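Posting for a labmate who doesn't have an account.
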Amino acid sequence: MAKSVGAKSWQLAPMLPADLDAVMEIERCSFAEPWTPGLFLRELKLPFSTTLVARGPDEQIAGYVCWWLVGDEVHLLNLAVHPDCRRQGLGRHLLETVLRAAAQAGARLVTLEVRDDNAAAIALYRTYGFHQVGMRRNYYAQGSHALILSREAGDGPLRDGA
């Protein structure tokens, strides 16, 4: 599925084990406590997990997203964009992909955890109607807290009205 985002065209595709090096580079640039390669490989084997990568016109991986569909809920596990590709709409596109998948699956709720000091991510999620429903204290190894955000799957804005 090709999607034009700003001046770029992004191709979303299921993550493959061969994508792991590029995904790990983005992961390490994006998070103080990055996932391990083993965690990503585990996600590729779970029947309720979806992990997509976004490739630019140069075929380089520019971002990725991972979520679970369990029962009538979607849980967003991981979303990141390479630092060189940020502020171009790719993060929004990845989030909208999850929200569309949730709606198409008939999910009732979309949830996620976000580090309480990740202002950019929190602002993005709030733009899409997420609100705080809880906090996990000392969730991260360095003692930072995680905000638990949620929204109804069918609520909130999407740019193209889908």
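Reply:
Got it, the structure tokens are right above this. The two ends are 15 Å apart (CA to CA).
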